[in-house]
Amino acid sequence: MRSLRLSRRLRPLRGAPRGAKTAGQPGAASGLAGSPMTDPTDAEARRRILAEYGTSFFVEAAAGTGKTTALVGRIVGLIRAGAGTLNRIVAVTFTEKAAGEMKLRLRSEIEKVRPLAAREERDRLDRALEELELARIGTIHAFCGDILHERPIEAGIDPLFEVASEDEAEAIADAAFENWFQKILSDPPEGVRRILRRRSGRQSPREQLRGAMQALREHRDFPEPWRREPFDRSRAIDALMNDLAQLGALAATSSWPEDYLARNLTEISRFVEESTRLESVRDRDYDGLEAELRSVSRWRSWAWKGAQRTTFGTFSRNEVLVLRDQAKANLDAFIAASDADLAPLLHDALQAPIRDYEFLKTKAGRLDFLDLLIKTRDLIRADAGVRGELQQRFSHFFVDEFQDTDPLQAEILLLLAADDPRDRLARCPPKPRQALSGRRSEAVDLPVPARRCRSL
Question: What predicted TM-score, i.e. pTM, was given to this entire model?
Answer without folding.
Answer: 0.81
